[in-house]
Amino acid sequence: MKVIDIISNADKPLFTFELLPPVTGGSIDRVFKTIDVLMEYSPAYINFTFHREETIYRELSSGLVQRCTVRRRPGTIGLSAAVKNRYGVEVVPHIICGGAKADEIEAALVELNFLGIENVFALRGDPPKGEKRFTPQTGGFTHASELVEQIANMNRGVYLDSGLKEPFPTHFCIGVAGYPEKHLESPNMEDDISWLKKKIEFGGEYIVTQMFFLNDRYFQFVETCRNAGITVPIIPGIKPITALSDIDLLPQTFNIDLPEELVLEIRSCTTNKQAREVGIEFAVEQSKELIARNVPGIHYYTLGKASSTARIVKEVF
Fold this sequence. Notes:
- By secondary structure, the chain is of the alpha/beta class.
- It is built from 11 helices and 10 strands.
- Strands 1-2-5-6-7-8-9-10 form an 8-stranded parallel beta barrel, surrounded by 5 helices.
- The longest helix has 21 residues, at 272-292.
- The chain is globular and about 60 Å long.
């Protein structure tokens, strides 16, 4: 079932969450264990992130340094299919521009279509680790809107090879990302909203936001989107604090603000366990306020840590 239909037919806010594929050499059983904990709360769908290649440098026995390209977390498509088959829950694999050419993206979408997966989440992706600027692959895309357009074209039976005879259309529901505190590369919110509107005009059917900790930022973002003519559902994304380092790393990584009272409370903690408890309590109250304002649902960024999310969802849904 398509995500947009799940949202449209829901009689209460939806609970959804996001997981990472295991690292290379890791077991899928660890993912299953995380999902087992959260299935009790009837997630509407599960997102799986996609991770591009990284460049690393290995020191050889000769003393020379070798430049290597590695994929730390492959398997998004296979993992998505395995989870859909095992649990009967809808899955939403991420598709990114970074590190991929248009024909490689098309091939991945063909595989997903053959597997009966009809939901995807279109993202530009981050620059490679250690690089500040995003550079598209030769033959790839610079913006997520171009990726959305490619997927929407396939839904109309338009593939890269214009010489195909009677190509079958795909049937993907396309989700896109929104940034309540603007994308860190956007010069201002107005510019960021213009890019978001383009993604919707090209075929995006719903928005999931970047994580935020100040609900007023989300409410203002929704109002700004509506004023710009963006009418699709906008689902808030929440990440509970799970470690002392989160209050330093999250703002740097995601260009977000944290409320002063949360920062002070975390700084008063001496262990990650204490910080995790504060994070759960804050996320419960944040989620309750969002639910009270009739959001379509809440999407939780778990990073594979099910216990915190399970406790929050038990209190909220």
